[in-house]
Amino acid sequence: MTKLKTLMAIMMLCLTACAGTEQTTLYDKLGGEAGVDKIVNNLVQNIGRDEQIFHYFAEANVKRFREHLAWHLCDISDGPCTYSGDSMQQIHDGMAITERDFNHLVDLLIDAMYQADVPHPVQNQLLARLAPLRKDIIYR
Amino acid sequence: MKTIFLLLSLLPGIALAADGKLIATPGVSQIEGAAGGGLVPWAQLAGYASRDEIAVNAFASRGTLDDYSLDVFGAQLNLYDRLELSLAEQEFHVESLNLNIRQRVLGAKMRLYGDIVYSRFPQLSMGIQYKKLHDPLVANLLGAKDDSGTDYYLAASKLHLGAVAGLNWLWNVTGRYTEANQIGLLGFGAEGAGYEWQFEASTALLLGRHVAVGVEYRHKPDNLGLQEDDWKSAFIAWVPNKTISLTAGYIDLGEIAGIDDQDGLYLSIMGNF
């Protein structure tokens, strides 16, 4: 009986441990909902202080921007969300965002991740997910 | 040198330094003046200019070998991340003869496709390097055909974000069509030997945003029959900000003009504006 209990205990341990390693998503590494919110808030503040690209956001609804960006980041980092807001193309059509300004926003995002204590390798993994979106965002 | 000062004197006229690329991703300057590693020209254009910007860069490099040394000063102009124009002045010192061999390299590189970070496929560029020896004596004595020549190359580079344990990883391959002997310092071609394709490759790992370590390989021809060896290097680059970079490396250049085992230290400083 004790043997069976020990066996079961070991199996339980293994189950949680194995499940844990298998299901660590990028979203988890970013710190889940709280982590993503922190990144988004930092980014919003960085943009607010930025002379180069603030003008793109001057008329944006900040609350909506925050929510949609967090939603999108959650989805793209394999979090428990499915982004169904406007596409990147729809959002950026007519904004004529230059490559210089886009790449500057990436620098601000990197700053935001540092401010949220996201480790360097995790930062790169998120950037890797976001990089393919650039073509839908610039010069539109 | 005059031309470099001329280029540098343009700097105050440029109000904003180009900063439209991720830090450390444009690479540094190679010995013939193009953006690259230390030895190999990469597909990236020099400096931080995006498609909306102009970048001006200057660099100085020194390679100290057992029996030779090579000093290089140069500059690049990057026009809208499409065209790179470069100038390099090389001074190769031969210890045993207490003699300097000077060469000028004028380069142009055009980006054909892509962006090293963002495009799906690697960035692709083609370039030329026109080289003119100011001191052709040694080249003539060794049997080189010309004191000037042109290299043509095609380069492909890609940076993979977070690819190796979350670190950014870069590779570059370059094919160079050349008849230069020891990159032109010993002239161009020889009796019965001329243009050939040479393969060059580099790879680097970015340890954080400001430090890169890498290795390079440069295949070389042997027109003069002097056992010209392929060149190899291992380097570390420190990029504290988008204005300055420092590179230190170990270079192994093999046999040069009959003297074997030429290896030593390589140092380079680059400014981006």
What are its keywords?
heterodimer; A: 140 residues; mainly alpha; Globin-like; 8 helices; elongated; B: 273 residues; mainly beta; Porin; twelve-stranded antiparallel barrel; two-stranded antiparallel sheet; 2 helices; 5% helix; globular
Task: Describe the fold and architecture.
The complex is a heterodimer of chains A (140) and B (273). With 140 residues, chain A is mainly α. Chain A has one domain: Globins (Globin-like). Helices cover 67% and strands 0% of the residues of chain A. Chain A has eight helices and no strands. Chain A has helices at residues 2-22, 26-29, 32-48, 54-57, 62-76, 88-92, 99-115, 120-130. In chain A, α3 (32-48) crosses α5. The radius of gyration of chain A is 19 Å and the shape is elongated. Chain A starts with a helix and ends in a 10-residue tail after the last helix. Chain B is mainly beta and 273 residues long. Chain B has one domain (2-272): Porin, CATH 2.40.160.40. Chain B contains two helices and 16 strands. In chain B, the strands form three sheets. In chain B, strands 3-4-5-6-7-9-10-12-13-14-15-16 form a twelve-stranded antiparallel barrel. Chain B is globular. The model of chain B has no long low-confidence stretch (mean pLDDT 94). The interface between A and B is medium-sized, with 21 and 24 residues.
CATH topology of chain B: Porin
Q: Overall mean pLDDT score of chain B?
A: 94
Please identify which CATH superfamily of chain B we are dealing with. monomeric porin ompg
Q: How many beta-strand elements of chain B?
A: 16
Q: What oligomeric arrangement do these chains adopt?
A: heterodimer
| Domain count of chain B | 1
List unreliable stretches of 5+ residues of chain A: none
- Count of alpha and pi helical runs of chain B: 2
Q: Please tell me the total number of domains of chain A.
A: 1
Strand proportion of chain A: under 5%
| Name of the top-level CATH class of chain A | Mainly Alpha
